[in-house]
## 1
Amino acid sequence: MAGTALSGIIFDFIFWMFGFLRMGTTGLTAQAAGEKTKRNPFLF
């Protein structure tokens, strides 16, 4: 039972880590896209 709980904790950590990266880069991508330059907004 402890293994199931530990795997759930690890899964939640990884899931929220990717969510944090997605939310953290949204503003940068929006700013780059809003500049309307020929620069690729996905390259920082």
## 2
Amino acid sequence: MHIGILGSLDNPYVMELQRAASANFPGMTTEVLRFADLQVGIGESAIERAVPLKGDGSSSTCTALIVRSMPIGSLEQVIFRMDCLQTWQSRGVAVHNPPRSLEIAIDKWLCLQRLSDAGVPVPATVCCQTRSAAMEAFEGLGGDVLVKPLFGGEGRGILRASDKDLAWRMFGTLQQLGQVLYVQQFVEHFGYDIRVLFVGDESYAIRRIAAEGEWRTNIAQGSRAEPHALSGEQADMALRARDSVGGSLLGVDLLPARDGRLLVLEVNAVPGWRGLSQTLKVDIAKAFLNWVAGER
């Protein structure tokens, strides 16, 4: 089995997948493909049969693609890259995660809407385009909000506003920059959240405890992790969140709130696993490749 990995050679998760394939799966080979090199074609072009193309224009023979990054690009580039994934999926290449799952998870609002439509509890959120609408949301959400980029992860670019004047300036700047204003009620919590990682039909869970003085619980923001045994409610909610997005490798973030609610913050379709793997002493790269091989 030959697997294409969309990412960069120095990406730690790409390297883990390569290591796991070489050490555990005789006959399995991998190659790293760059998003910038992706091409498709229709008609007389030989490119039509390239599923997918490598950077030198030759065709890769991979039967499965693993998406390990989604680089920043223009709107056209992002849409085209998703088109490429859809093309290869339609030609019989197993894409992990499928393009539709990536589209849903990458777009915070679309993901939140899917979760809500599936009956999964989520934080109160308003998505708008003007400062006046955002200020109305700020007041309506209690005057303590998180302002998040529509696209992005690992806690980067998230701002907290609990001061009206600060919120006014922040929303004005974002509007001038042409940004969509994603305004979410800040939920008082216990200083931790729960990351549930789904690998095929298996799930793994850790508790991510925020660093002192920090409200963000992302590992990338300095939180520490410890094993976590899911309650029945937590397991059921994580499963419903996973099913609302779809995919074979997904991270679901649960937040136990101080008021007793259990909320889903988001679903990540290109999740990291280093903190979880180290905490639980489990080889996630091996487990995922075992799933990919079984699916074929």
## 3
Amino acid sequence: MITAATAALFAASITLLTSDPTIADSSATAPPAPATPAAGVQSGVFLSYNVDKSGTSVTIEHAGHPTAIALARDAVTRERAAGDQWHVTSLASLQPGEPVSLQLTPDGVAHGIDAEYQIVSTRLIVHKNDSIITSSGDVYTLTGKAAQSQTPLDLGTYLLLRVDPQTNRAFDLAASTQPFAAAGNANKITVTFVVSVPVNTPPSDVIYLSSNTTNWSPNGVRMSPLTGNRWTAALALPAGSSLQYKYTRGSWSTDERNAAGIEIANRSLSVVKSGAAQAIKDTVARWADLPS
């Protein structure tokens, strides 16, 4: 049972933690970013991503420094909870504070991003400032989306956290008065999309899949090029769910249209209820900014 006395004891502990001057203030201004990293794997914490005419880049915090790293056109972003299968996801789905590892080419360009975190199901003992103590005795620092929640957390609240296991920083938090179902029970289907695009598609452009799962961001899921003017992406989607989506070249001014250049309705997909995989083949008739 969680008692007021227990909470008071933990509150004293958290006061010591939050008042310790040796604990770094994550809100302090970071020093200038270091030089472009060499080839290999660079780990850090995801901060943001940017898309402009020069391409796509991601900014991570590494060794206390924000570092912007260019992303290759065919880069793949993967995500998983520790112990689960990897699934392809989009940059838009990554959360600030999420731990990531970037695979870099010799010139410092990222050709892959892996985001791996730990899921923690627990109960709240103490919530003070951006720190919490849970029923297991573990202390977590709230960051990113988890720190932005304005909802008061009461003693005994059930918590479902997504955590960086190296730092015990929780970047995502869900709270409930009832226990959460065991994480990872939902059956996922790997859906592979292959789309054929018009022959006049600029060779330097990247094709994206925009959908209701990425809040209709026009550059939601970066696809990978195949031969024959085709692009592909694989998503892990809940069995039996539905998806609405469209293809773009990174913006709504360059999205797909019908052969006459008229805007089309959202594409729709019903994910199968059983099995391990599903394949989808589509064709883009024309782009909004290009002739047929």
